[in-house]
Every structure is written in structure tokens, then in C-alpha cells.
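Deliverable D5.2: sample structural annotation.
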Amino acid sequence: MIRNKNVIIGFLLGLFLSPTIATIVFAASSFQLEADEYLNRICNKKKVVGTDAVLCYFRDRLNSLESSDSAQNKDIADLQVKQASNSAEITDLKSRKAIVDIGQVRGSFWENSDSFNNVVTPDQVTVNCPKACNLWVNYDVDTRNTSAPFQHLYMIYVDGVDQAVFNQATMTTPNAAIPLAVNGVFLASVGTHTVSIYARTYGGIMQSHESHLQVLAIEQ
């Protein structure tokens, strides 16, 4: 009995004289107790102690870390997909061009009998370009002639200049309605621009019963 007391006293004295050893011993003991308590609850509710408890505890923590890594990898993959999608959207936005102005007019009855000159019709609109732009012009008309056979010619002018873009129709029957359309895209500088439709007949009396002119000013 005295010998056991001497052993205990020597052990405690050794711990007192060596704080580092004491720290390791108590830390190990604390970890063992934590592992035992944890595994009593988690490891199939079996009483697992000692080295088996520590190994089971480590295995469980490792599984938790692997699960956490998998979740993080999924989050990273999702972020990469989202980033790629955002980059595509940004690129798409950069490639889009803004419509800076719109002009349109609906024409009514008009007629012309000049067979030598291009004559301006009432169909014209003015648009403003705050920056260099493209003018997208669309025109359609219900054209007729009081007699036949004659040709009708419709042309696009920008700021009074013939753009050499036109369409023509041949009147084969007097007073018959012939649908005609002409369109084009033209470069325009900063400022206001007037788009006009000119027409010409090669005989008889040319008539426009209904027409539509639309102009979009689109940034370059």
C-alpha cells in the first residue's frame, strides 16, 4: 500500500515538475473521454472505448470532412457554371445594338403623272442619331395606274440623296392594286436625318392608295 502511494506521489510530482508532459497526458485523456462520449451516442449506440473509440471517431470525422469537401466541390462547380453563364450574358449584351430613334408614317392617297423625273412622295420621316448609326428603312405601298401597261419605280433617299436602292412594278391592268416594298440599311453620321420615298411612273397616272414607312436608327 505504501509502495502504491509512493508511485502515485511520484507520478503527480513528475506531472508537477514537467508541465509539458502534464499537458499531453491531460489532453490525451480529455480527447479520449470526448471520443468515448461521442461514440456512445453515434457508433450504433454500442459501448466503444479505448483505441477502437478513437479510430471510430477519426473515421466519422473523416467522412464528415469528405462530405463537406463534396459539398464545396459542388458549390464551386455551380459557381463556375453561373460565372460562365454570366460571361455569356455579358458578351451577348455587349454585342447588342441600341435603337436610338424610331420614325414612321402612314401615307394616304397620292398621285403623280410626271414620267421624266423622280418625284418626292409625302412619305418621309426624320430621325435623330446621337451617335453614328445605321438607318434601317422599310417601305410598302399599294400602287396603281389609271391605265396600262406602265412601270412604277419607288426609291429611297436619305437627306435628299438617292441611295440607289429601289423596287419597281409593272401595271398590267388599269386600276389594279399592286403591292410593292423596298427596304435597305444605310450608314448615317451624328445628327438628324430625313428619309424620303421618291417615285416615278413611265406613263399614265400613278396612284398610291396606302403606304407605310418605318425607319429605325440603330447605333453602329
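Annotation notes: Helices lie at 2-17, 19-42, 50-95. The first helix runs from residue 2 to 17.
The annotation will be released with the project's public dataset once the embargo ends.
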